[in-house]
Write a structure and sequence with these properties.
Oligomer: single chain
Radius of gyration: 57 Å
Shape: elongated
Structural class: alpha+beta
Number of helices: 10
Number of strands: 30
Length: 600
């Protein structure tokens, strides 16, 4: 089209040239007449130039130009327009909106990448849609997404990101449909899990699907790359859910099958401590877990598996037993070393004095380690000949070094019994040389219990005051109503029970028994004035004259009395009572409420 001239334009050019030729000729003739008398050099040069132009614009110049009529011009114009339309539309036969097309990069500026898609104008794509480190080269072809041929400003709307997204989405759907793993990078934490970058598209990784075992800190996974299984595709929202656990389980299943086909009792295996409980520790053997029971950590005694191992430790274990059907494997640590109990009978004999460190203190005794893996028990009854030891931790601490005597050895049961009191002579053999019935002495209260108080007799011997032996007429609910630990108490020796290894003491026997007089002083049916002291499940305790206590059984209290009298009593309130019975042998005065209490 650019090399051809339209007919009308040709005619206009010819007419213009013809007019210019006439003018030039006329001007030349007129000029020649005028300059005949006198020749001007400048004017001659101008005439010569005009002559050259005239010669150039001769008829031969347009000899090859075709002349057409106005009719031909109209037809030719329509044909040209059709040709242009066909060529223009031909460039869009395979292009439509909302599809991925190939475009040629023709320029790159600071803000945009310019591409040619074969349209009437070029398209621009913001550089933010490209990786600045990997910008396309000018002249290269890239895939882009054509959103609109024209926006409100008349520009083509293109997107490199959307093209990449669509292509990657189709790839990931293929991975999901074919259960193929896809590599991704964990980029951040969100509520309930993590976000994984799969390249262009991000997916959600639930916390429960991050690993086959609980994860303490999800931040440890950030910026790490793993293989993932796509487990859910939301086509409408364009969301993906992935699982790392599914990949790991598949791998573990393969390793588990391989391990269970080659495992043997007695085999030594490498593993990682996965979890610790009170009864043992679970070890990951690479696809299958094994359990080390607390009794298989050491030939000696331990209180908790955490004393030996920690989570994450790489350890060597020995297979004790296994079940292929259930994939259960029992492991041991102590089996990797010789059993020290096999030589114990030759090392330790009854009566030997041994020294060791306290490794554990229980309510019933102390465990001491006499050599690596060998522990003996000092039972609480073997601590002292005479003292009643209640709390071992008041006297002994873990780590203390103590001596003891071997009392019993059983290598088969892996038990050694030890004693501390056997290191000294038994004072009970000479008890009567130090303590005699009827002795009146004083001593320090070592311990107070609800049954009574332990009082020191000598440096080694203790006596016991029962709760009922503190007072003739009072019946305390607890001995602390009379005495506290550390106080000095006067007593009399009531009895010596050598067989039971007990010395019974009494405080009340320091004075005469008043019950012979009490029995004669109070008769059945006597009306007395008393003061309320306390109440228990059995009845009401009141104080009579001379600090004598009386007891009103619940069976002697009517419903009206319980409601109108007992329910509103405070300590010290007066009560009218009647004597029911006096038993001097039982040191008990049984009473009942007088009806006047209700009437009041």
């Amino acid at each position: 089209m650019n090399d051809k001239l339209e007919t009308k334009e040709v005619e206009n050019i010819q007419e213009t040239v013809a007019d210019e030729s006439v003018e030039v000729e006329t001007a030349t003739e007129e000029k020649s007449v005028e300059i005949a008398p006198e020749v001007d050099t400048k004017e001659v040069k101008e005439i010569t130039s005009i002559k050259k132009i005239k010669d150039y614009l001769s008829k031969d110049l347009f000899a090859d130009i075709k002349r057409i009529s106005f009719t031909d011009d109209a037809n030719s114009s329509d044909d040209s327009k059709d040709l242009l339309s066909e060529e223009y539309q031909g460039t869009f036969n395979d292009i439509s909106e909302n599809q991925i097309i190939s475009a040629k990069v023709i320029g790159i500026s600071d803000s945009d990448v310019m591409v040619d898609i074969g349209f009437k104008s070029e398209g621009l794509i913001n550089r933010s849609e490209f990786d600045n480190k990997d910008l396309p080269e000018i002249g290269s072809n890239i895939d882009i997404f054509l959103e609109k041929f024209e926006d409100t400003d008349g520009n083509i709307t293109l997107s490199k990101y959307k093209a990449d997204f669509i292509k990657r989405w189709d790839e990931l759907k293929h991975f999901c449909d074919n259960a193929e793993p896809v590599k991704g990078k964990v980029i951040k934490r969100v509520k309930g899990g993590l976000v994984v970058d799969l390249g262009v598209i991000q997916a959600f990784l639930p916390g429960s699907q991050a690993d086959v075992q609980p994860i303490k800190n999800f931040d440890d996974l950030i910026n790490q790359e793993f293989d993932f299984q796509i487990v859910k595709v939301d086509e409408m929202r364009k969301n993906l859910v992935v699982s790392r656990k599914a990949i790991l389980e598949e791998s573990l299943n393969e390793k588990r099958q391989e391990l269970m086909t080659t495992i043997e009792v007695g085999a030594s295996l490498q593993g990682v401590v996965k979890n610790i409980t009170d009864f043992g520790a679970f070890v990951d053997l690479g696809g299958v877990d094994g359990l080390i029971h607390i009794t298989d950590f050491s030939w000696g005694r331990i209180n908790h598996p955490s004393e030996i191992v920690s989570i994450g430790d790489e350890i060597t274990v020995q297979v004790i037993d296994f079940n292929k059907e259930t994939s259960r494997i029992s492991l041991g640590l102590k089996q990797l070393v010789d059993n020290p109990w096999e030589t114990i009978p030759d090392k330790y004999k009854v009566g030997d004095v041994v020294k060791g460190n306290i490794v554990s203190i229980m309510n019933y005794g102390i465990f001491i380690e006499i050599e690596k893996g060998i522990e003996g028990l000092i039972h609480i009854s073997e601590i002292s000949w005479t003292k009643n030891v209640q709390n071992l931790q008041d006297t002994y601490k873990v780590g203390d070094s103590i001596e003891s005597k071997v009392l019993f050895v059983d290598a088969k049961e892996q038990k050694i019994s030890l004693g501390i009191k056997q290191l000294s002579d038994d004072p009970w053999k000479t008890i009567t040389d130090h303590v005699k019935i009827g002795d009146k002495k004083s001593g320090t209260v070592n311990k107070v219990t609800k049954f009574g108080a332990f009082v020191s007799l000598t440096d080694e011997l203790e006596g016991f005051v029962r709760t009922t032996d503190f007072h003739w007429t009072k019946n305390p609910s607890h001995p602390k109503e009379f005495v506290n630990e550390g106080e000095t108490l006067e007593y009399t020796v009531l009895d010596i029970l050598e067989k039971e290894r007990k010395v019974l003491l009494s405080v009340k026997d320091l004075v005469e028994n008043p019950w012979s007089d009490i029995e004669s002083k109070f008769n059945s049916g006597d009306k007395l004035l008393s003061s309320f002291e306390r109440m228990n499940d059995s009845g009401v305790i009141v104080k009579l004259q001379d600090d004598i206590e009386g007891f009103i059984p619940m069976s002697k209290i009517s419903k009206e009395q319980k409601k109108d009298v007992i329910g509103s009593l405070n300590e010290g309130d007066n009560l009218d009572v009647l004597v029911v019975e006096v038993k001097a042998d039982d040191k008990n005065i049984t009473l009942m409420l007088d009806d006047t209490n209700v009437n009041d």
